[in-house]
Every structure is written in C-alpha cells, then in structure tokens.
Amino acid sequence: MMESREPLLWHFKQLDGAVGLSFKANFHFALVGHLMKGYRHPNSTTITRTTRLLTSILGELCVKSE
Fold first, then answer.
1. pLDDT tens digits for range 16-55
2. Cα dist. 33→22, 36, 40, 63, 66 in Å?
3. Which of 30, 32, 34, 43 is the most exposed place for a label (fewest CB within 10 A)?
4. What one-character-per-residue DSSP string does 9-62 give?
5. Is this model's pTM higher than 0.70 or not?
6. Residues 1-15: pLDDT tens digits?
7. How far lies 47's CA from each of 10, 33, 34, in Å?
8. Which residues contact residue 53 at a Cβ distance below 8 angstroms, ignoring those fewer than 6 apart?
C-alpha cells in the first residue's frame, strides 16, 4: 500500500498534516483514524464509501489467511 502513495506523496503529506495522522509513522493507527472519521462524517456517501473500504480490506485479509 505504501508504494502506491509514492506518486502522490506531496498530496498525502498535506492530508496527513491536516488530519494529524501519519501513515509513515504509524500506518495502522492512521488507517483506523481515517476509517473512524469516515464513519462519523455527516455525508452518508462518505459513510457508505468507508464501509465499502473496510469490507474490501477485511475481504482481502480473509482471502490471504486461508
């Protein structure tokens, strides 16, 4: 996942600074922080996308653990 950030690193650094989470310093904490912000977002589309993202991540983890 971190390799996919490289082309957009400048933009992601701004995002990390704006929300106070650093994927480089603590990837897991930053991922959970962004998911929590998505769940608490007032826009229902953002909540739906967050749920879809979490489902996709969990699906990938289940496939890899089998």
1. 788 788 877 888 888 898 899 899 999 999 999 999 999 9
2. 10, 5, 11, 24, 27
3. 43
4. HHHHHHHHHHHT--TTT-HHHHHHHHHHHHHT-S-HHHHHHHHHHHHHHHHHHH
5. no
6. 566 667 877 877 887
7. 26, 14, 11
8. 35, 38
Task: Indicate the residue type of 16.
Answer: D
Residue 13 tokens read as 């650094």
Taking the C-alpha atoms of residue 23 and residue 21, their distance in angstroms, rounded to an integer, is: 7
pLDDT at 7: 80
